[in-house]
Write a structure and sequence with these properties.
The protein is α/β, with parallel strands linked by helices. The protein is built from eight helices and four strands. It has a single domain, classed as 3-Layer(aba) Sandwich (Rossmann fold). The two termini are about 30 Å apart.
């Protein structure tokens, strides 16, 4: 066998090595982030940093066992709820759809692998990705799963303020993964959003969807929803470890789905 990238990055292989290293049952891991405001204390590329690093750690932990390979990161996605803030760059729904459908087509043309695990670092992508997963399966024959990293953590329904954006979870993960990018001195300026009930009604209402934005002072403070002051690197490492551990079972299920599909062809 030819040289195998120690990092399992597709981009580090040469073209003759693709057929040696990858097979139909290999799993391609695609990190998707976003370029958007995360309050005054976290950088615009927070979701990119988290998606890429989580993918790297998932591939490092499970790559040899489940034959994982990391694709280049998609850094721009759907972030219109943050468009009010300077620096936020959002694709349109149509732009995300065209990008990912073209990518799905190219994966099938260029690579033997037929399993795709999307590591989604931006919660605002969820609706689009869920719909596109059906397209990628039906139109291109890809066996797909999407790991929504924010939703993989234990959700505390009793939290004083729901942790949605730039709060305890994201700030903690950044403190664990990229502490040099966190403006720690600005965290103390953040206040908790004023009304827990308003957040639940806007973001998590049962049976209703609202196009909420992070400049709505009823639910946010300086673009954040959550309690960043409660963040710590230790808690962030706990979240990261939990996501990496949980991903193993998800990826095993993805391979089981592929085997089931083969038997029923």
């Amino acid at each position: 066998m030819s040289h195998v990238s120690s990092t399992r990055l597709i981009g580090e292989l040469t073209y003759p090595e693709i057929s040696d290293c990858l097979s139909e049952s290999s799993i391609l891991c695609l990190p998707i982030g976003s370029f958007e405001q995360h309050g005054p204390h976290l950088p615009l590329n927070t979701d990119v940093v988290l998606a890429e690093e989580l993918t790297k750690r998932i591939v490092s932990r499970w790559g040899g066992v489940l034959d994982l390979w990391q694709l280049p990161t998609i850094s721009l996605s759907f972030a219109r709820e943050h468009e009010w803030a300077p620096g936020t760059i959002s694709l349109s729904i149509q732009g995300v759809m065209i990008l990912l459908r073209d990518l799905g087509r190219e994966i099938v043309r260029a690579l033997p692998a037929r399993n795709l695990a999307v590591i989604n670092g931006h919660a605002g992508n969820r609706g689009i990705l869920e719909a596109l997963a059906q397209d990628l399966r039906a139109d291109f024959g890809l066996n797909v799963c999407i790991l929504h990293t924010a939703a993989l953590t234990d959700f505390d329904a009793d939290a004083v303020i729901p942790d949605i954006h730039g709060g305890k979870d994201e700030t903690s993960m950044m403190l664990a993964i990229a502490p040099h990018l966190v403006r720690k001195d600005l965290i103390a300026r953040l206040k908790r959003p004023p009304a827990r009930e308003a957040i639940w009604k806007s973001v998590f209402p049962r049976g209703v969807t609202w196009p909420w934005t992070t400049d709505d002072e009823r639910i946010t403070d300086m673009g954040t929803i959550g309690d960043a002051q409660a963040a710590s690197a230790e808690f962030g490492q706990h979240i990261v470890d939990y996501i990496v551990h949980t991903a193993g079972g998800v990826l095993e299920q993805l391979l089981m789905n592929q085997r089931f599909s083969r038997r029923n062809r």
